Amino acid sequence: MRDDPLREKLIGTEVIKRGRILEFRIDTVEAADGHRSTRDIAGHPGGVCVIAIDPEDRVLLVRQWRHATGGALLEIPAGTLDRHEDGSIEDHAGAAARELEEETGSIAGSWRYLGAFYTAPGFTSELMHLYLATDIRPADAGGLGPDDDERLELRPIPFPEAIAMAERGEIHDAKSLIGLFWVERLRKR
Q1: Cα separation, 10 vs 1, whole angstroms
Q2: What is the 3-state secondary structure (H, E, C) of the chain?
Q3: What's CA 10's distance to the chain center, in Å?
């Protein structure tokens, strides 16, 4: 990458605000031809998302209010990687299991890492790790539940119907669309 003619060299960073999850900053960069410009960046620790398929071949979706969109969205279980006190970031495999249990009350007997993708690379560093979880069963009583600020409705939907909903434009969340179509492609192999 160091020899990439498109590479931009970081000249300076001005941190505007550090929130609970995001760090908002303005980076000054220099292109290979010497031209300098700024980039508005939302630094993010990364996240996980899970396509969870239960024994009845239903995908576990959650409906939740998304203030930024002004409405509720139907999504696959997902969450942000926790930042530890020492600044290190939580392992994404453990985070996937945690998010599945917190958001659906379920645990998985089988896990498969599918890959990772940037959610919006024009302005954020968020790298989302996608997992397929199968052999789903209810978590033990007293297990993990949603975060204090989350209000979720669990919606198990037959996998073919979830794909049809995505194709009809009824699912608007990018990570959910990527996950559903990725798993559909795997099933067709």
Answers
A1: 14
A2: CCCCCCCCEEEEEEEEEECCCCEEEEEEEECCCCCEEEEEEEECCCEEEEEEECCCCEEEEEEEEEHHHCEEEEECCEEECCECCCCCECCHHHHHHHHHHHHHCEEEEEEEEEEEEECCCCCECCEEEEEEEEEEEECCCCCCCCCCCCCEEEEEEEHHHHHHHHHCCCCCCHHHHHHHHHHHHHHHC
A3: 27
Separation CA 100–CA 21 (nearest Å): 20
The Cα–Cα gap between 173 and 67 comes to: 13
38 close to 13: Cβ distance less than 8 angstroms: no
Q: What is the pTM of this model?
A: 0.90
Please identify which residue in the block is written with the tokens 């980039």: 39
| Four-point Cα dihedral 155, 161, 167, 169, nearest 10 | -40
Express each pLDDT in 44-76 by its tens digit: 999 999 999 999 999 999 999 999 999 999 999
- How open is the CA angle 52-53-59, to the nearest 5 degrees? 80
